[in-house]
Amino acid sequence: xxxxxxxxxxxxSAPIFEGVPRNILKSLAKLFHQQEYPAGKVLVDLDSPSxxxxxxxxxxxxxxxxTSYGEETTLNxxxxxxxxxxxxxxxxxxxSARVTCVTDCLIYHMSKEEFDKxxxxxxxxxxxxxxxxxxxxxxxxxxxxxxxxEEHSALETRFVKLNRLIEASKIINSTLDLxxxxxxxxxxxxxxxxxxxxxxxxxxxxxxxxxxxxxxGSNMVEIRLxxxxxxxxxxxxxxxxINIPDAYNDPRFNPDVDxxxxxxxxxxxxxxxxxKDGKIIGVFQLLNKRDGVFGTDxxxxxxxLSAHASVAIENARMAxxxxxxxxxxxxxxxxxVIIHDIKNPMGTLRVYAQVMKRKSGNEEAAxxxxxxxxxxxxxxxxxxEILDFTRGVSAMNFQELExxxxxxxxxxFIEKDLEKNKVQLIKKPEFKGVIKLDQxxxxxxxxxxxxxxxxxxxxxxxxxxxxxxxxxxxxxxFTDTGTGMPDEVKKRIFEPFMTYGKKHGTGLxxxxxxxxxxxxxxxxxxxxxxxxxxxxxxxxPTKS
Length: 544
What we know:
Blueprint: H1 4-12, H2 22-29, E1 33-37, E2 42-44, E3 52-58, E4 61-66, E5 72-78, E6 83-84, H3 86-91, E7 98-101, E8 105-111, H4 112-120, H5 123-172, H6 178-192, E9 195-204, E10 209-216, E11 219-226, H7 230-238, E12 242-244, H8 256-261, E13 268-274, E14 280-289, H9 296-360, H10 363-391, E15 399-402, H11 403-419, E16 423-429, E17 434-437, H12 439-455, E18 461-469, E19 473-480, H13 487-490, H14 509-519, E20 523-529, E21 533-541
Parallel strand pairs: 16-18
Antiparallel strand pairs: 1-8, 2-7, 3-6, 3-8, 4-5, 4-7, 9-10, 9-14, 10-11, 12-13, 13-14, 15-17, 18-19, 19-21, 20-21
Helix pairs in contact: 1-2, 5-6, 5-9, 6-9, 9-10, 11-12, 12-14
């Protein structure tokens, strides 16, 4: 226990004893009892009895009050020389606040009886206590007003954010065109959080890739990257938010794109876009916030926008599917009627052609009969193929075949058709291995591509067909010297009912081609340049 003189010296530093003679302090000092309390200790709890008053010798305490919605609001923080718990000792009411040690504390305390003696001991003590209470009330008022101002400011900020979100939601729900919608979503995100630029990727779940469309020069081009690759790929795979305040000091950032484009990335926010089921359907990648770095508010806004954007994207996809399905259904009904009406006459023509071949005894007539049979079969199969496509039927008849023989037969048939249109066929077959194919469907794929190449060379030209093995795939390339196609056509060439540069056809040819290639586990790519020609590249797996 400290000596009385030491305790008197401690009390002299307290405002409540200002001007009190030392001889009076000596008698008052005996009323105080010293005790140490650890940080976190609750000295006084709300609504507890008013039986003790405290004087802080060392450390800090927090006076707080719980709101009706459970938040603990700080009213004051008191330190050395300040008295705590005096109000309820004066008015006799239960405690109206909680007092908690912020740090380890050394505190003098006295009972209510001792406090009454203490206040009545000298008029100056009562006067100082009154000043202390008055200062405390003023400070509490300032704290409450400041808190109200902060809450008001926070409400205004939330209102502005909500308004921005509503406006962004209106914009992104203004169209059902998916390409246009992606641009609107990205613009809304970048504008709302003051990003300089960005990219919006969508997830292709079948290919496990991210894809987006970016402006290169005056053209929009599609870019793709594997899931898990790069920052965007990592976010798509894990669902994590990556906020990089200083790009060039973060090992996750790859500066290669900056080097190629001349753009300088300072900071980056990369976030997943999730649908209503929590599934990741895309990724926002936003760059260079104006006047600072991306913060928690920006993350919260993009997260909220993500919910609206995902709904808009799914609505656009559903609308496209409904239109496409309706058109396919109409074509399917038409194809069904055609097949029903032509099967009997086509069957009769086929039989007659077979009879003519047997009875003619003429080699040229036999060849013409074979051509008739082939064209009848081709017409019936093509019509059936359209019907199967519109119904979503995907019956495959895989066989292990010598690919070189299949290509030789296809190219011999294609060559005859091309010669009639002054198109030279240049053959460069190298691959001779065995792979699994549905021969009939693959032959029609090759013929369809060759027919499109022929139509792209109305005044003649050359079609080069090559095959080569490449990393467990056989690569088949059809390269023509035709008119080529613009980027807008190239990016939509596999959509049903997409036609370009010809007056005949159903517009389903390349859509069916892609479906057959997909069913074989392969992929198809197109390179084309206006006025110079087109290359269609097919990669088929050599190992099942």
